[in-house]
Structures are given as C-alpha cells and as structure tokens.
Description:
By secondary structure, the chain is α/β, with parallel strands linked by helices. Helices cover about 45% and strands about 10% of the residues. InterPro entries: GNT1/Glycosyltrans_8, Nucleotide-diphossugar_trans.
Amino acid sequence: MEERRNRWRVFTTPMVVLMAVLACSVVLGGAAQDSKGRKRHAYAAMMYMGTPRDYEFYVATRVMMRSIAKLKIDADLVVIASVDVPIEWVRTLKEEDGVKVVTVENLKNPYELQQNFNVRFKLTLNKLYAWSLVDYDRVVMLDSDNIFLQNIDELFQCGQFCAVFINPCIFHTGLFVLQPSMDVFKDMLHELEMGRSNPDGADQGFLASYFPDLLDKPMFHPPLNGTKLDGTYRLPLGYQMDASYYYLKLRWSIPCGPNSVMTFPSAPWLKPWYWWSWPVLPLGISWHEQRRKHLGYTAELPVMLIQAAVYVGIIAVTRLARPNLSKLCYNRRPEKVVFFLHSMLKVAVSWSLIAAYTVPFFLVPRTVHPLLGWSLYFLGTAALASIAINSFLLPPLSVLTPWFGFLGALLVMAYPWYTDGVVRALVLFAYAFCCAPVVWNHLMKVMSSLHSLLEREAFFPRLGESAQISEFNKLF
Length: 476
C-alpha cells in the first residue's frame, strides 16, 4: 500500500508543478493583455495648441513614439490630444505612427493670475487626463523631449504613482508612472476647482502638491517575478537623465538605476529638435539621429531646396549684374546733401551686414538636421553678403570674416574628443578671445573702405567726369 502511494506521488508531483507553472504564466501574461487581447499598459504623451512651437512639439512627439515602438515594447502608444489639434496631425499619428489618439477638451487653468505664471504652461494641466485612461492598468506619462535608450517596460510594475527626483526636493513630471483611476481624476478636477496650492501654475507644481510625500517613499526596484507593486515610489535617476548632467563631464555617470531615458528640461529655445541646438549642446545630435532613423526630414526638404536655389540664384545674379551705385548720380550735389547721403550709405551698409548674418537664421526650418540647417544658414549668409559686397563695393574678405569666425566656433564646439565640459568651455572662450579682435579689425576695414570710396567720390562723380569702375566692383 505504501509503495503504491509513493508511486502515485512520483507521478502526480511533476504534474502539479507543471500546472502551477502554467497557471503562473497565464496570470503574469494576462498583465500585458486582457481576455480580449488588448494591451494593459500604455506609453502616453499629450498635445495641445496655442504656443509658437506647436509644430515642433508635434514632430518631437512623433519621433519619440516611433523610437519607443522600435524597442519592442509590450504596450500601446497613446497621445492625449486637445480638440483643436489639426485633423491632419491626428490622422498622421494614427495611420503612419500607429498611435491611439484620445481627444479631450482643454482643462481650464485656474492659476493664470499668479504672478509667476508662465503662459506657455497654460494647458499643461491636460496631463491630468492620463488618470482617465482606465482601459489600462498602468500608464507611463511622457513629455515629448525624452530620448529612449532602451526598453523600460519594467516601469509598468510600479505602484499607483512613481516619479523621478531631478531636483533634490521636487520630482520631475517629464516621466512618471500612474495607475489610471476615474476617482483620482475626478478628485484632481475637484482640487483644481478648489484652487489647490500650485507653485508654478503648471502640471509640475500641481502634482508635486497632490503627492507631497513622494520624497519619503522607497526607491522602486522591479520585482523579478513580474508582479505589480502597490503604493507610491521614487524612480531611479536613470529613468530621467537630465541632459545638463552630461555637459559637465561629456559622458553619463548616473549610478542609480539603468541609464534608460534622457530628458531636456532646459530653455525652450534649446530643445534638441532645433537645428541650432547642436553643436552648442552636444546631445542635440542624439535627438536628430533618432529622427533620421525613424522619421526622416521629407517634410522640410522642399522648403530647404527652394531656399538653397534662391540663395544660389542671388549669388549668380550679383556676380553677373555687377551693380554700380556710382551710376545713380551724375550731378554734383551740395555739400550738405552729399554729407547726408554719405551718412545714409554708412547706415545702409551696417544694416545690410547685420541682415546678411541674421535673416538666414530665421528662414531655416527649425526642425531640420543641424548639418543641413547650418549649411543652409552659411549659404544664405554668403548670398546676402554678396549683395552688400557688390552693391557697396566692399572688400569681400573683410565682409566674410565673421562668416569664417562663426564656422570656426562651430568646429571648436563640435570637436568630439574633449576630456570634459570645462575644457570644452575654456577652449571655446580662448577661441572667442582670439577671434574677436580679428573680426572687429575687419569690420573697421569695411567702414574705412567705404569712407575711402566716398572721399574719392567714387559713388558721386562730378558732372562731366567719367566714373571709373573700381577694382572693388569686380568679381570677388
């Protein structure tokens, strides 16, 4: 009898273990999908209109979503879009990027009258709609200025609210984990109506006030068995690596948590998608590499080709036409009139040089690749400078000296083998210190050249005298 029992145990024990393993796999697998095959987790971002940079954030959101999708995530991609987001943008997100778009009404910001309120944060409270995504067990809410280095699906194991402390005392809302709940969402709306304390009038201040004790919570470490945690947790800094930490040593040295996500909470005009952000900020090229791989630049390419063609045409016309302002006047003017005209010419030359170096900067599409953006800028500067050179008979080398100075500064900043950010800053300062007197000297030569031409009345010959073509009017 005892022998039969032992045989039965030997037979049944492996079966029980196998059934337990299968049951665990079903339970854990069900965390990612429900019975209808829908994903139980989501990466979410928001979009709204009403700022001068709406298109840039639209492009940034597309790049981020596509880069996340390439990491083989087990979650949906969701964009919480306000009702005024253009239909074309929504259609592109759905059809080309595979994103689920949730359309919402803008939440009224009750903090607009605060003294420190920044109008660009007026609609950031739309981020609270993330708690209304109750079709999901967990949501990772994201700002558009994140760059993903690796898969972070383990964050879906975190509790009801988890965030990173970039600031020692205030957590950052560029990435946080939440458990959707209509009760929490309605309570947040109620707190908005009641005027809950909000230091900055934006989502950052409101959530910091709503979860005031997060700093005292334990650090999140994903359980190895894949189970979900309850409660609130601090996330390791590796999930929100502030780009400013990189610039000091020109490398990442984040000891806590995986180095998974870079973020750029810097000045709004130095976000990584702007072409001028690199090489001023070395990490700007990282975002553009993500865009080049996942999205491309076909949207801006036609505008760039048209601008390049116009600039090349300007250079060709100015070289062929050889305008000569000395032919505009053939009568001797009274001394007062001549003095006035000379002064006006100096002002015109000054403004033409300023325009040559500034106008092309604002004409380049903002979100193009830095190499394309800077190339188009320098081409435009050379084109507009050629107008000034040929129109006012200016020395070409002196006019183009700032052009070469700017190019040299970019090369100094782009040099990739600095030991740290301090050395890079010192080298750039030394270059500027040496270059500034040279540029100033050549600009003075431009003005002295113009004064010399005016003194010889090259622009205003006397009646009956033939105006000789100056050597400065020839092709440079």
